[in-house]
Design brief:
It comes from Svornostia abyssi. By secondary structure, this protein is of the alpha/beta class. The protein has two domains: 116 residues, Aspartate Aminotransferase, domain 1 (Alpha-Beta Complex), CATH 3.90.1150; 236 residues, Type I PLP-dependent aspartate aminotransferase-like (Major domain) (Aspartate Aminotransferase, domain 2), CATH 3.40.640. Helix content is 44%, strand content 15%.
Amino acid sequence: MADTISFARGAPSLDIVDVEGLSAAAQRAFANDPGGLTAYGTAIGYVPLRKWIAEKHGVDESRVLVTNGSMQADAFLFQTLVQSGSDVVVEKPTYDRTLLNLKSLGAQIHMVSLERDGISTDELAGLLRGGVKPSLAHVIPNFQNPAGYTLSLEKRRALLDLAGEFGFPIFEDDPYIDIRFAGESLPTMLSLDESDDKVVYASSFSKTVAPGVRVGYLVGPAGLIDDIRKLATNTYIAPNMVAQGIVYEFCASGAIDRSIATVKAALAERVDILCDALAEHLPEATFQKPEGGYFMWVSLPEGSDIDAIFAAASERGVAIVKGTDFLLEGGENTLRLAYSGVTADQIEEGVKRLAEAVHAVPVAG
């Protein structure tokens, strides 16, 4: 069998990671602050990086906590706000590990339809007026995982209004914000929240620096961040100071801007090739061309069997993720394609193999 072409993993291919820049940042980090990198540090994270993040978002440092990846940030927030039986709102579909984490906590999960301009705020309003009282509403506003859709400005404002009216926090999970390669940038809900108490914001350097650094962060109300700091202290004393020190040097030097430019240019090219290949080899598929991020949501004709297609694709050396992984029910005709980890010259061959797999599986009905 030919080597597997993977559209499964949401990670950048090595050719677009600034390995030289990271190596230089590591050397500077150890030269400039050997004590800070080699000590336990504090639960709030590497202090210079925390300050850099606070300045980036225009908030006080007391509102920032730096963690071992944004998934650790998510876990801390869920542990703090979600108990067994708590109502939690998520998008439909949503990130599969979010569903797994919330299920493990015993949350009552309410999936709200995801439209091409983001979560249905009308559907959410109906849910809230029907008596659901969320501990939080989890939203991935930019280039959503798995769909690749972006929440419109109108819906960002509507979500903030609903949060104010019904008294729940918005968890703005935003690791892809800087990976925009088309269209207009939109303000975060964090920046739009004049009260500074409706939004908890999370992001990550995995998508802009490298996944291996495992550095993420939370920005939220100072009291909540302090509660999470105590949880972090009891969990690991302090996060990885070496990784955070390297990320700080990478960011402070401006290397992150060059890295983001490289990633955006590469992913824009890959999206163009992917869309053209799907149109040619799998014309029955429907999708929205992403303006950024790592992912595309693809719908096949009703009656398609994604389990059988997944197996047929694996036999042909192409990896995908089933849409059903991102839902509590339904999605049997959907899949997610990640274009971040495939090089441009692999994409058309990968789509050809996927199309062969789809066409090998009969459509029911």
